[in-house]
Amino acid sequence: MRKNKGFTLVEILIVVVILGILAAIVIPQFSDASTQSKVSSLQSSLQTLRSQISLYKIQHNDAPPVVATFDTQMTGFTDVDGNVNATKTAVFCFGPYLQSVPNNPFTNGSTVGSATTFDWNYTVTGTEATIYAGADTTTDSAVHQAY
């Protein structure tokens, strides 16, 4: 009598189908984790930007940074009127508030402007400043809440 060793084609197909079902369940969970990580990073960056804008406003007589010069005002030394200098002096004694503008994790850029085409959408109306993720990165309402 001959003894058969090995697996039949049906047994192998069953195992392949089971592995496919498991992969279909597990893979979407990993892709969602990546998006959730980006949302968390974005929220953290927005919190940092908002708190530093608040500090800037406190030290500059309730005047927020100007949209056109946001980068230099937040990363350089400023006087009470918001004028920027490369080094700290008796007159230019405030700042820097940020080492650099953080990257938006969805766009991987750090441009700041007053339109959604920028990585960070920053607008100023009087003494009120609003900053949120630009470039239509996500529809998460927690990310888009105004400052």
Structural notes for this entry:
With 147 residues, this protein is α+β, with helices and mostly antiparallel strands. 39% of the residues lie in helices and 12% in strands. It has a domain at 42-133. The protein has helices at residues 9-59, 70-75, and strands at residues 77-78, 84-85, 112-113, 120-125, 128-133. The strands form 2 sheets. The chain has a 3-stranded mixed beta sheet with strand order 3-4-5, with helices on one face. β4 and β5 form a beta hairpin. The longest helix has 51 residues, at 9-59. The chain starts with 8 loop residues before the first helix and ends in a 14-residue tail after the last strand. The relative contact order is 0.13.
In short, what is this structure?
By secondary structure, this protein is α+β, with helices and mostly antiparallel strands. The chain has helices at residues 9-59, 70-75, and strands at 77-78, 84-85, 112-113, 120-125, 128-133.
* SS elements, strand count: 5
Order of helices and strands: HHEEEEE
Low-confidence region ranges: 138-142
Beta content: 5-15%
- Globally, the shape reads rod-shaped
Gyration radius, to the nearest Å? 26 Å
Span between N and C termini?
Answer: 82 Å
What is the number of helices? 2
Strand neighbour order, sheet with most strands: 3-4-5
Proportion of residues in helical segments: 25-40%
Described by strand count, sense and barrel closure, the largest sheet is: 3 strands, mixed
Structural class, judged by helices and strands? alpha+beta
| Rounded mean pLDDT score | 87
Oligomerization: single chain
